[in-house]
Amino acid sequence: MISSKKKAMVVGVTGASGSIYGIKLIQTLLDVGYDVHIVISNAGWRVIKEELGWNIADRNAALNEHFNGYSGSYIYHQIGDIGASIASGSFLVEGMIVMPCSMGTLSSIANGTSDNLMTRAADVMLKEGRPLVLVPRETPLHAIHLENMLKLARLGVRIVPAMPAFYFNPKNIDDLVAFLVGKVLDTLRIEHELFTRWGDESEQPGK
To answer: Where do the annotations place FMN binding (predicted)?
Structure first.
């Protein structure tokens, strides 16, 4: 059960490639004590199964396996549950992150269609003036993709493309995933130690 005393965040995971980003994000938020409201699209579940090998026959069991045992708690909302708590602006959360964000979901948010719980929750962030971060994972991009992102950026939405850096000498995929999750958390001023920042090593005081 979600505690009213903890900070809460909504995390959406769509069917774009890169479900590992969303999973790592949720685990990190839980680790630092957030209560996380999770929404996963049907396509998102399929990608999780294909990319990460999850057994999703029992979705609640899969979530318990990967998200239990942290400081924070989670609540899973069905994508079609338009009456869920996070569909209302009167329900207080710190913000929302969609990671990864498909171009279909991004388009729905940009055009205010609110056709499922994920896009409705995002619409709530916009109307209430709360932080909304989208992590698009698509390439190449055509003009409609770019126009939708520009439209959202002008509304104050933070667009953080899934573009990992290499200046910190990543050793494996986990390092690249952690970097991108860290960049998303940076946009929300959430402290973390997921990657070495530029200058952290080279600017240490002399001994």
So the answer is: 15-17, 41, 102-105, 137
Tell me whether residue 44 is in a domain: yes
pLDDT in tens, 127-178: 999 999 999 999 999 999 999 999 999 999 999 999 998 988 899 999 999 9
Establish whether 70 is an annotated binding residue.
Answer: no
pTM above 0.90, yes or no: yes
Residue 53 included in any domain: yes
Residue 125, marked binder: no
Binding site annotation covers 108?
no
Helix and strand totals (H; E) in the chain: 7, 6
Provide the sign of the torsion angle of the four alpha carbons 168, 72, 135, 148, taken in this order: negative
Domain assignment of residue 124, yes or no = yes
Q: List the CATH number of the domain containing 45.
A: 3.40.50.1950
What is the mean predicted confidence (pLDDT) over 31-49?
97
Asked whether residue 167 is marked as a ligand-binding residue, the answer is: yes
Number of domains in the chain: 1
Three-state DSSP state, 60: helix
102 belongs to an annotated ligand binding site = yes
For residue 32, give the 3-state DSSP assignment: coil
44 is in an annotated binding site: no
